[in-house]
Task: structure prediction
Amino acid sequence: MRLLLSTCPAVHAERIARALVDERVAACVNVVPGLVSIYRWKGEVMRDDEVLLVMKTRDDKLSALREALRRVHPYDVPELVALSPTEVDELYARWVDDETA
Result:
């Protein structure tokens, strides 16, 4: 199983989450509000209010999720950080597998 992180403007979050779940590249996407991101973009330091997307998928769906996120995300370079959990509840992992089959 993979746990993926991305950020986006709040106005796009539910649309992105639904698209990823509808396409079965993510079993679940949590939308966590209240993020402030400070970053450098094209030589300038930027500040944006964003939300965090926490996505759960199978290892073999990572490429498809990446492609889908790039297609539906409003940013030129959407953040995508994939983590490999060391411990996942067996029933939850099975649910993620089933929902992304």
Summary: Residues 10-22 form the longest helix (13 residues). The chain has one domain: 2-99. The chain has three helices and four strands.
